[in-house]
Amino acid sequence: MNLMMPTAASPLVLITAPGPRIAETVHALTDQGAVVTVAATETTDAATRAALDDLAGRRLISMAAAPRMGDFDIVLRDPLPSTATEASPTPASGAGRVTLVGGGPGSVDLLTVGGLRAVREADVIVCDRLAPLSVLSEARCDVEVIHVGKIPRGAFTPQESINALLVEHALAGKHVVRLKGGDSFVFGRGGEEWNACVAHGIPVEVVPGVSSAVAVPALAGIPLTHRGLTQGFVVVSGHVGPKDERNEADWGALARSGLTIVVLMGVAALAEISETLIEHGMDPATPAACIADGAMPSQRSARATLADIAAVADAQDLTPPAITVIGPVVSALEV
Questions:
Q1: What percent of the chain has pLDDT over 90?
Q2: Among candidates 67, 53, 69, 73, which has minimal Cα distance to 13?
Q3: 60: which DSSP letter?
Q4: Which stretches of 213-283 are assigned E, i.e. beta strand?
Q5: Active site residue 243
Q6: Sign of the Cα pseudo-torsion (313, 314, 318, 322, in order)
Q7: Which CATH number fits the domain that encloses residue 276?
Q8: Is 1 within the bounds of a domain?
Q9: Is the pLDDT confidence value at 269 over 90?
Q10: Average pLDDT, the chain
């Protein structure tokens, strides 16, 4: 979807009649610098409502119950009112395959050339909410787009269902692109998707993506390594807290490592993570930063000491997706 935008900075756009693929429309507009408002409607279906709540929670849109059209530069009826229902054509070779594409943190600018090529060639695209959805405007007009949401404490597509979708469409002879945020093999569950396809004899290719673990701190002005401060970094999942019985990370070893600690999916457990690191000897005054919606127009961050970062992030309403960086590198660059 290529939309001609006014030359003025930050044009105000109102979207009416949002559909289940509203996230694609919003990403296409925000990538072009627009400030987007969506007209709320009581007839919105559950899938669309979940997508709107997620977009609003990430500050990519504002919702308006009774917007005045004269307040906006552009009023646009959502051009993607429904998901594709028609079947995609089977390639002449009849041989299906799957390409796992890491799309980067969310901005289409960070998608690789290889990822773009795969999107353009796909018969079916199975995509996540954190993928660079505006790139779908580059896909073929007959492509089938399937959104598989994993919204924290919201709409959720089980991984087993995603695996089954990839297998089903590839066995039908389609080129299936699995488009997701970051890199498929860095907390992206790409390995499970690979194994599911291989178990059915389906060829799998991988297009690596720019991991948010590295890119988002850089976009916030934080180098993960810096001469004289640290010789490395570690990336760890904070999906469950250190004291949760499901935790498998040795947080005591991390506290003593002298490495920069990058925590993904750790917003809810941030207070517990900080407390545990301090309990195991990390200086409470260690610089820390939490960055939400990295690479997106709504990117925002908070900086504080390790002892205070959870409270500061909460006070500034930093919500997932967010990355936390802990270590002296947080204050390494002059501002």
A1: 81
A2: 73
A3: S
A4: 233-237, 260-264
A5: no
A6: positive
A7: 3.30.950.10
A8: no
A9: yes
A10: 91
For residue 128, indicate whether it is catalytic.
yes
Q: Does residue 90 register a pLDDT over 60?
A: no
64 has pLDDT over 50: yes
DSSP H or E stretch at residue 194:
helix 190-198
For residue 137 the two structure tokens come to 């405007």
The residue from 31, 54, 123, 128 that is catalytic is 128
The two structure tokens encoding residue 217? 């701190």
Report d(CA 238, CA 173) in Å as an integer. 38
Residue in 53, 73, 150, 308 annotated catalytic: 150
User: At 206, phi and psi to the nearest 5?
Assistant: -125, 130
By residue count, the chain amounts to 335
Q: Is residue 188 domain-shared with residue 234, that is, in the same domain?
A: no
With CA atoms as reference, report the closest residue to 181 among 120, 108, 267: 108
pLDDT at site 40: 84
Q: What is the greatest pairwise CA distance in the chain?
A: 62
Is 67 part of any domain? yes
pTM of the model: 0.88
User: What is the residue range of 270's domain?
Assistant: 213-331
Clarify whether residues 107 and 201 are in a common domain: yes
Q: Which pair of tokens denotes residue 1?
A: 């979807």
In the block, residue with structure tokens 């997932």: 320
pLDDT of residue 167: 97
Range list of H helices, 226-320: 251-256, 270-279, 309-315
Domain boundary among 20, 43, 77: 77
**pLDDT at residue 112 above 50?**
yes
- The DSSP 8-state label assigned to residue 143 in this structure reads -
- Would the pLDDT of 84 be above 90? no
Q: Give the pLDDT confidence score for residue 19 in this predicted structure.
A: 87
| pLDDT of res. 46 | 82
List the 287-292 sheet strands across, edge first: 233-237, 260-264, 322-326, 287-292, 300-305
